[in-house]
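Question (not urgent): is this output format expected?
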Amino acid sequence: MFDIGASELLMVVVVAVVVIGPKDMPMAMRTAGRWIGKMRKISGHFRSGIDAMVREAELEEMEKKWREQNEAIMKAAPQLPTAEEMQAPASPAPDSPAPDSQASNAAAAPEASSPEAAEAASGAESATPDDTRQAELNLPPPPP
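Got this back:
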């Protein structure tokens, strides 16, 4: 850092021993050590502050990129219905079933000999608005 060679360091030690004296040399070395420690502590604190500012700037840049990518994805993706739209029926349920469903129900009725099969057939006849909405959105049926 300061590029002090061995000969220069030897010269500093000789001058320090002559000027300070061998008796006061340990106290002078402790004082110099404290000063060096304080300078290192201050420079470390300064360096950590600079590193924190750099990290914050990088984080802000990453958040900006994330927002841009999120907006692009949201524009490209189709809009899904909100919870309110899913709760509201899409269209009123018809009062009478269609002729095709009557024919299929009539064909299934003679086959149903047990009460469980009859309940299953009657449950298949009535489709709730939620089931219709699920079919429109190509959603799987809810678990039992």
